[in-house]
Amino acid sequence: MDVDNLFKPLTLLHGPAMKNRFMMAPLTSQQSEHDGTASEFDQQWIEQLAQSGYALIQTGAATVEAGGIAFERQMGIHSDDHLPGLTKMATAIRKEGVLSAVQLHHAGHRAKSLIGGIPAPASGNTVPGIEAITTEEVGRIRDSFIAAAKRAQIAGFNGVSVHGAFGWILSEFMSPHLNDRKDKYGGNLENRARFTIEVIEGIRQACGPDFQIGWRLSIERYGLRLEEMREITAHIFDRELIDYLDLALWDSAQTVREGTYQGKTMLSIFTGLPRKGVRLGAAGKIMSAQRAATLLEEGCDFVLIARAGILQRDFPLKVKANPMFDSTTLPVTAEYLRRGGLSERFIHTMRGWQTFVKAGSL
């Protein structure tokens, strides 16, 4: 496969173009301070990435409300107190000529009460003893997403990525399994998607025509229906509500096992949609130069690098230098990650990822 296409510019509907087709996936490193303030370790990580050849760097999931927290030491963007650290990060990225986005996140029913989270389920049947959030509370959380996007803009980021994957609140509302509401946010697909659409439309209105909006979507687990996810994505593409779709797959090559699209790759179900000016990228076990190049041939406009970027911070530069570059085989030792520039906090997080860090390595 020819890797040269990975280094061609890519225009977006709003704001500046990407200088190539590499986007750093949003990685929740759990190395911020306990109040969500960006730490020196966050800053060091961002500075490394900014010099590593990516066209656009997404931060890890940042809480839009204090109660929406899912991880210890999760980055926050729910308070103006977070602005100094965020501004420093955005400045470091911009200095290297790279685009930037904050991933906006609320854990919904998965918020962890042990670290200050307040579960906010769509349904009263999801979390024992906790009622579904009210229509008014949905509106409040929607407005928190929009306010967080405005903070990102003030801090100097080019845009935000709205986290609509993995059963977090926007994904949760999409799921007929997790959403049995009777108000305007429940019932048919249009109603279940309303929360997401209102968040995206509100961000555009608040942040203007030059601000970039991404949307992270997953299509597996949590009761999500593939046909419905395709339908709502087609709607968002047709209205050009976002600049790019970040399709979060466990494996970018996986196929559908049953139903209407059985035997097709999950990716093809979305790359086959008319997308007008919206760009589409995928994440999921992209560990080599050749796999990245293949994804463009399969219809992606860009690729999202996650594990490979943790193993080798300058993955895009390695690909440019060697079209046959392949990532180090997992698992790796903690010392390998340490030598590569990961903080001890980040390494501790990676120990929780299955088969990433060798058991017992110091």
From TrEMBL:
Keywords for this protein: Flavoprotein, Oxidoreductase
Matches recorded under CDD domains: OYE_like_FMN_family
Any GO molecular function: oxidoreductase activity
Gene3D superfamilies per record: Aldolase class I (3.20.20.70)
Limits of the NADH:flavin oxidoreductase/NADH oxidase N-terminal domain: 6-322
Keyword match Nucleotide-binding: no
InterPro entries named in the record: Aldolase_TIM, NADH_flavin_oxidoreductase, OxRdtase_FMN_N
The keyword Transport belongs to this UniProt entry's keyword annotation: no
Name of the featured protein: NADH:flavin oxidoreductase
